[in-house]
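My current task is to audit a protein record that another person submitted. Alongside the sequence sits a line of tokens, each denoting a local backbone shape. Please read both lines and tell me whether the tokens look consistent with the sequence. Do not assume that whoever made the record got everything right. Thanks in advance; the entry in question is below.
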Amino acid sequence: MQANRLLRIERVISNNVLMVLDSDSGKEYVLLGKGIGFSSKGSGTIEAKDPRIEKRFRLDDRDQMSEYHTLLEGIDPEVIRISERIIDSINGQFSEPLNNKVYFALPSHIQFAVYRLRNGMDIINPFLQETLLWFPKEYEIARSAAAMISEAFDIEVPEDEIGFLTFHVHSAVSSVPVGELVKFSNLVNEAVALVESELGAPIPRDSMDYVRLITHLRHAIERIAHSKVVRNPFMNEFKTEYPEEYRLASKLGSLIGQRLETDVPEDEIGYMVMHLYRLFQTYLGERSTS
């Protein structure tokens, strides 16, 4: 986009968001900037290097353009306004540049959440405990966002929904898709259930054992999904010295590999053995002495 080019304003989305067209290239852009929409009302063009523009992104393909147009036509303007306030809050508390998809995903999520809450539909979040432990800063921002939503739409936003908003906050600053966060969280829960089944006892959710286990599982799943390699120099010793822990770690590896449709490296299984050893000592050791 040339710096001195005039862009045609196609739509004032909100006080802070414009949709524009570069007539020469035929490309559509979304421009973001505090008050840029409000001050552009009644104007047909804006300079490409206007100092009010804080962020811009291009709708790269037909599907993305169609998605954004559909979003604009279906979303309550108040939802867009609240979404902007929440995004401003995220921007103010993280130094990382935000993932552009938050401008699509967050209003869409809030619109559907408001619909469900207004119509008495339950929102159940099976990952709430894990979300609180993994993303405490994002959770506090989501709690503030829930208060904005509650005030704007005169509804009570339950804690389960705050957990889902937390995923959107984390996705905005990490560029990890919300769908991936949900998938990985679900897989952590499956893995914990397998461990508890083998132990024959639940792991208290407020214990350090649980915190260490789910934290390790989450990071292991992320590494495996993204083919990040770790080395474990004690792998052979673990296999011979801790056969029961290795057997369970191999089961976990099979579960994770099946869900992610990939191979789980032996080194990752070795690190699982280390965490399982502590659990075996705590839970199976206690049972054997009781």
